[in-house]
Write a structure and sequence with these properties.
Elements: H1 3-60, H2 64-69, E1 72-76, E2 79-87, E3 90-96, E4 102-109
Antiparallel strand pairs: 1-2, 2-3, 3-4
């Protein structure tokens, strides 16, 4: 193999390695974009759950009379709560996102007031 043939072969090797690196880099960029999107979705979901938990904590301090008077939908901050009377003294509370998807739910018990 002559010197000029070796130079031509080396040039082909360099071009092939550049193509391989470019392909791998494109894959890594796509992976980084997906990771960023996943991180944003996780942070948004965490904020939604935190807001819902705060709203449920506030409602958990309500008396039985206040829970009964607020039965139905009530808005607390950025969260919509649906309060339903499950049975005597039991209240089902569901926190929803703005698009109607439930985020958290709980059931509270409030004994009847002593007469």
């Amino acid at each position: 193999m002559s010197r000029s043939e070796r130079r031509g072969f080396a040039l082909i090797e360099v071009l092939v390695s550049i193509v391989v690196l470019a392909t791998a880099s494109a894959g890594l960029v796509g992976l980084l974009i997906q990771c960023g999107d996943s991180l944003r979705r996780a942070r948004r979901a965490e904020q939604e759950v935190t807001s819902a938990a705060e709203a449920l904590t506030r409602v958990s301090l309500w008396t039985r009379d206040r829970l009964e008077s607020n039965a139905g939908s009530v808005r607390i901050g950025a969260v919509t709560l649906r309060i339903t009377v499950a049975s005597m003294g039991l209240f089902d509370i569901v926190a929803f996102r703005d698009d109607g998807v439930p985020v958290l739910s709980t059931t509270l018990y409030r004994a009847a007031d002593a007469q």
